[in-house]
């Protein structure tokens, strides 16, 4: 314990919903009885701030550590800036179990070779250092500008082939966006085109597509519902493990290929080959696996959400179109183009402010810490509520209005708190794929606005947590060729 100033209040004093004896607060998430819903944690959090203020304690959740929800950007900044060398982000227990128990022989075979997802402390720090030297280097993302644009072109071609007679996308459009995201990420992480839009049955691509889909379908269920898999291997858990095994075996086979190419060429020519050269084949394979686990549905849900928001705003699209046309003048995209498109970038930021795919990011405290004037014990999960802060008038003038301009040419008076909207996290553990995600998103949005006028003619969609924050309903966009 460290000495706390007398003015600092205790953990017991933090306001929050009271846990019931035996039932804790878990019952509040019981359908029809509890009033709280995991799927609508966005609304639960808005209500909690309204009732209890900027710092809310959530205790007594079965199988979970105590949590502290923080809605105050200055406190978020203080916690982030006070982080030690190895910040601990609460991670998916099922993945933890996969890496550290079930497949311990593989992930524990070499020192510091378990990856960054569901890994903590010195092991995380050593692995992250090896990978970030390559993945965050200047130009690591820019080298993919042209191939990522080619994937975006393939996506547009695909859309043209699946639109109905009213030029509307099919009800399962989100699936197509997932395919685009998987195609883009395979290019970056595995140095390969999977041809997701036309993959043949029995191909390696199809095995990977199925495995990734199974992983995403099951991970939300395994993490958000009662963890029966801890007691026995449920059917869903077995499918989840098989999917992870498939993704890992595919990444390993591509690392083998990369090794051969490096030998043949005498140098490395891609992110994967750079990783193999700098950190060895096992690190490269595990890094690729981790990028797959967190880099696909984040990006695809963000793109689906941006397209939907743009379809509601023809004037915004027109302004983007003018900007894009001025920069590209009908030539193909090249590195650096998007830097000449401040309005496009601002639109993406504005959607991520209002509808961040990750509604709250968190840290498990590695030491007792004062937050919002309370002494919060080590081990507590502190959750930074970016959805709520991003939509609060306390931090953004007229927060409910879509105003991309707020991100452009900001005068000191227009400046907002830098920690109120952090879609990619912050600090030593921030998103490792941010540059790649931005490249993919900016490129595909640029291409979509160039190709189509987008409209939406159905009931407005609410958002839900699934497990990303995403429009709830079939994304039926009317996409008319320009
Ligand atoms: C819109 C797209 C994306 C969003 C909003 C997003 C958001 C995030 C957030 C909030 C975190 C946690 C950061 C923190 O704890 O401070 C994170 C971590 C991470 N992201 Fe992303 N991400 C996106 C796309 C990607 C992509 C495309 C990749 C891979 C190419 C990727 C790889 C990672 C990795 C490996 C981590 C874990 C870093 C670590 O723990 O050291 N992300 N991301």
Automatic annotation (TrEMBL):
Gene3D superfamilies on file: Cytochrome P450
Required cofactor(s): heme
Record-linked Pfam families: p450 (PF00067)
Residue positions binding heme: 431
UniProt keyword terms in alphabetical order: Heme, Iron, Metal-binding, Monooxygenase, Oxidoreductase
InterPro entries attached to this UniProt entry: CYP11_CYP27_families, Cyt_P450, Cyt_P450_CS, Cyt_P450_E_grp-I, Cyt_P450_sf
Family: Belongs to the cytochrome P450 family.
Name used for this protein in its record: Cytochrome P450
């Amino acid at each position: 314990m460290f000495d706390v100033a007398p003015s600092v209040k205790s953990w017991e004093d933090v306001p929050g919903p009271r846990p019931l004896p035996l039932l804790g607060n878990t019952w509040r998430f019981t359908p029809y009885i509890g009033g709280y819903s995991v799927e609508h944690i966005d609304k639960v959090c808005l209500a909690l701030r309204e009732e209890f203020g900027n710092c809310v304690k959530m205790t007594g959740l079965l199988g979970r550590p105590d949590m502290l929800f923080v809605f105050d950007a200055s406190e978020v900044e203080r916690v982030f800036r006070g982080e030690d060398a190895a910040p601990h982000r609460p991670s998916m227990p099922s993945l933890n179990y996969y890496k550290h128990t079930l497949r311990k022989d593989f992930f524990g075979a070499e020192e510091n070779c378990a990856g960054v997802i569901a890994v903590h402390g010195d092991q995380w720090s050593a692995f992250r250092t090896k990978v970030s030297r390559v993945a965050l280097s200047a130009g690591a993302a820019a080298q993919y500008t042209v191939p990522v644009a080619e994937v975006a072109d393939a996506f547009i071609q695909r859309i043209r082939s699946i639109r109905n007679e009213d030029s509307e996308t099919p009800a399962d459009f989100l699936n197509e966006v997932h395919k685009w995201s998987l195609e883009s990420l395979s290019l970056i992480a595995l140095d390969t085109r999977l041809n997701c839009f036309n993959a043949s049955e029995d191909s390696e691509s199809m095995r990977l597509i199925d495995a990734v889909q199974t992983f995403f379908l099951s991970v939300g269920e395994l993490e958000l519902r009662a963890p029966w898999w801890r007691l026995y291997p449920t059917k869903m858990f077995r499918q989840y493990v098989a999917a992870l095994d498939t993704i890992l075996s595919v990444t390993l086979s591509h690392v083998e290929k990369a090794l051969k190419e490096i030998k043949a060429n005498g140098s490395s020519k891609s992110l994967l080959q750079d990783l193999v050269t700098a950190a060895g084949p096992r690190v490269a394979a595990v890094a690729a696996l981790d990028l797959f686990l967190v880099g696909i549905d984040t990006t695809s849900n963000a793109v689906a959400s941006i397209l939907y928001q743009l379809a509601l705003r023809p004037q915004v699209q027109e302004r983007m179109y003018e900007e894009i046309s001025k920069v590209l003048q009908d030539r193909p995209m090249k590195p650096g183009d998007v830097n000449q498109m401040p309005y496009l970038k601002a639109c993406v930021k504005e959607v991520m402010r209002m509808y961040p795919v990750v509604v709250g990011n968190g840290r498990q405290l590695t030491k007792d810490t004062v937050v919002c004037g309370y002494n919060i014990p080590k081990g507590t999960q502190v959750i930074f509520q970016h959805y709520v802060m991003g939509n609060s008038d306390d931090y953004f003038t007229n927060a409910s209005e879509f105003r991309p301009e707020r991100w452009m040419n900001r005068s000191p008076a227009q400046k907002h708190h830098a920690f109120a909207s952090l879609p990619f996290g912050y600090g030593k553990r921030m998103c490792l794929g941010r540059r790649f995600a931005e490249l993919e998103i900016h490129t595909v949005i640029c291409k979509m606005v160039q190709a189509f006028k987008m409209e939406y003619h159905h009931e407005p969609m609410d958002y839900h947590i699934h497990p990303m924050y995403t429009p709830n309903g079939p994304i039926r966009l009317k996409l008319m060729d320009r």
